[in-house]
Amino acid sequence: MSLQLVPAPTHLETRPGDGFVFTENTALVAPPGVARYAARLLGLGLDADGDGSDTVELTLGAQPGEAYTLTVDADRIHIDGSTAGLVRGLATLAQLRALAADGAVPALRIEDAPRFARRGLMIDVVRHFFGVPTLRRVIDLMAAYKLNVLHLHLTDDQGWRFESASRPELTERSSATAVGGAAGGYLSAADLAGLTEYAAQRGIEVVGEIDLPGHTNAALHAVPELNAGGAATEVYTGTEVGFSQLTLALPATTGFLTDVIGDLASLTPGPHLHIGGDEVHTMEREEYVEFIEAAAALTAAAGKTPIVWGEGAAADLPEGTLVQLWDTNSDPAPIAAAAQRGVGVILSPAKHVYLDMKYHDEYPLGLDWAGTVGVRDSYDWDPEQYLPGVDPAAIVGVEAALWTETIVTEANLFTMLLPRLAAVAEVAWSAQSDRDWEAFAPRLAAQEPFWGAAGYAHDPDALAPVG
Amino acid sequence: MSLQLVPAPTHLETRPGDGFVFTENTALVAPPGVARYAARLLGLGLDADGDGSDTVELTLGAQPGEAYTLTVDADRIHIDGSTAGLVRGLATLAQLRALAADGAVPALRIEDAPRFARRGLMIDVVRHFFGVPTLRRVIDLMAAYKLNVLHLHLTDDQGWRFESASRPELTERSSATAVGGAAGGYLSAADLAGLTEYAAQRGIEVVGEIDLPGHTNAALHAVPELNAGGAATEVYTGTEVGFSQLTLALPATTGFLTDVIGDLASLTPGPHLHIGGDEVHTMEREEYVEFIEAAAALTAAAGKTPIVWGEGAAADLPEGTLVQLWDTNSDPAPIAAAAQRGVGVILSPAKHVYLDMKYHDEYPLGLDWAGTVGVRDSYDWDPEQYLPGVDPAAIVGVEAALWTETIVTEANLFTMLLPRLAAVAEVAWSAQSDRDWEAFAPRLAAQEPFWGAAGYAHDPDALAPVG
């Protein structure tokens, strides 16, 4: 058998001798931080002591971050790493087990660690709403491919999708609808508490986004005093962009920003909060920059590190801020300058990782304003080479994005993610020198039974290797 | 009476004594280059000699460019300037005469010259087609407000609107439709010959635009070999942007560009040719820059100076090239860098001069992705202060733009232009120190009878001074 792991691990060496066969007696020995998750993922009973044979043993080691080692012998599987590393090693083990057609995981040793610290997926839950059950299944899928950031696009022109304790009118007035008159919805405080906990168990940070200062019609509809004339805007259910904006000069704006940024900061325990910043066509540069700097300062005051879309690189952002590039044809110069000031870069180039783009011209779902995005487009690029003039050390991550203008059902959603998300996951995790499209295509195809068994909709045609 | 000229002249001094009264005996004395146009504009007979009284006399003087002096005495009106200056002076005289309610043009002396060398209007004849009769009326209106560049957006996803001698299939296959299934059309070689001559008589350069490398579905539909797969795309009648592109690496592309740029260069006698460059979301930066540089080189080889939309500032453009900024929130840095290399800048910031934006939120026509654009928005800005860090000397002009996604009829078109185009004309012509919104609003309102008399549709509500 060949080892069809996705993403490819840093180092894998098979060993002589028999592999490990899971039986009804196989027990799990694991530290508390990961034990329940490991038991559920592998379907094993916990054995507090362990007698050293027929066990899967997880030990807390000194390896940094998400690095882990995984050793398979005939009588024992051993994963060593930090809690985060153990979670990644478990994903590898789950794949090895699923791929072991004859029931035996081959004897081997893996040493593995990620190329990029941040490996994400953005889901737009505004244009069409997706709630907790779908998002938990998204998180499971992300964990299977070692992704570690779920970025939720929570506000936009068409809706406000998280409960704000200090501004309840936002969801009361602006959560019921979605694109084309579809039903809306929102994530309650309890929903987000459960979701962030579920994600944390899988080593995944949930980053919430309040998109500012554009993409804000839902706020302008719910809070009249955010409008220059003091009158609320109408509900918007179309798909145009760029027409709405908050105005820092209005007296109500700063208080509003302080409230909603503070509320979202409380609802998302991770260290980051995304403040948007994309596609603002109604402001002159000076006003835009001033707004982004104010929103970033409020975010820092709420105890979070801000993330902004690529346009925000024009602002003077605090060191440690992350800028998320999306426009394939972005000017690298402002990002290079920001990187020199200590800003990190997340790469989401639309041509490669916007998974709402059609797979090909005839595809029934998706948009094509960034062209079509085949699996090979998602796979065949090097993030460190993407932005000439930007220090490769400043590239902290890669994030796929699924905007949902045309994505209505859960099946739509997973069909756009799979197989492309697995390709992006390997871009983000595996060393460039270990990546090769010809070798990857069959490994990717070998993942399909897993998706079928787990009930993930996916696009089977996209698995056929493309020239 | 007050002198309600638009745009405000550089220097105006009224004089004691009677004004000039046009009678049936008033004769015109003018040099050949401008005589026929002046006679038609003023409705006067030509008097080759002139006896020195009751005459409008135009003399060729040594003043540079479009500068002119205009003197009105009881028995003689005298305009002095180059041919271009005389045309501008005639526009002033036509306004003075139309505004002279009692029939007498007051005695005065005007010394006048433009602030910016290029003062333009772009009309998109692709999304909806407007032919020669409408464009002649547009040219007349431009001349009345001393504009000197008519930029025709001739190609886009929805149609190819000029006859290409070497590629007749472009109009044969891609000119019949427009947005939403509206009837298309195109400008034949004879149409463009007549139109450019008509414009030249009024001191107006016609600049044709072939939008490259995006906005090219009409070409991709008509010329299959421009597509990577060799198959023609479908006709497109929607209003999305950014999805189409030419590909320099395909063997057919350079020959195609050489042909169509050469053909358009022959059809437009002026020194410039616009090669587009906007809203390309399907290319990575390097491919985009390479394409723009190739298209600029082909344009130079065809004997024209290229103009590109703002994104094109990323390319290494020949000295003298003009970059036309449109995105209100543009990063000034690449434009500043290009300006230092000798590139000129045309300002078309959407928030101020995109006359396809709605006048206000409830306006039935137009788009609003750049916000609403009231008359004051069009008027109240200073082009030399617009781009921080860009040498004001690099700002060569201001250009209004009318995209026509929602503009179907000639009445639609002029309603969007008026009154805003007159405001933009003053921004481009008059000194900043002579411009003041409170003073301008009543001057602008005084223009309305002229539009009524000339049959130009306009928005009367927009003339009420806004706060």
Automatic annotation (TrEMBL), chains A, B:
GO molecular function, one term: beta-N-acetylhexosaminidase activity
UniProt domain Glycoside hydrolase family 20 catalytic: residue ranges: 116-431
Active site: 279
Gene Ontology BP, a term: glycosaminoglycan metabolic process
Oxidoreductase listed as a keyword: no
Keyword terms of this UniProt record: Glycosidase, Hydrolase
Broadest EC class assigned to this enzyme: hydrolase
Family matches, as Pfam families: Glyco_hydro_20, Glyco_hydro_20b
Beta-hexosaminidase bacterial type N-terminal domain segment(s): 4-113
A single Gene Ontology CC term: membrane
Catalysed reactions, semicolon-separated: Hydrolysis of terminal non-reducing N-acetyl-D-hexosamine residues in N-acetyl-beta-D-hexosaminides
Protein EC: 3.2.1.52
PANTHER family xrefs: BETA-HEXOSAMINIDASE, BETA-N-ACETYLHEXOSAMINIDASE
Family assignment from sequence similarity: Belongs to the glycosyl hydrolase 20 family.
Protein name: beta-N-acetylhexosaminidase
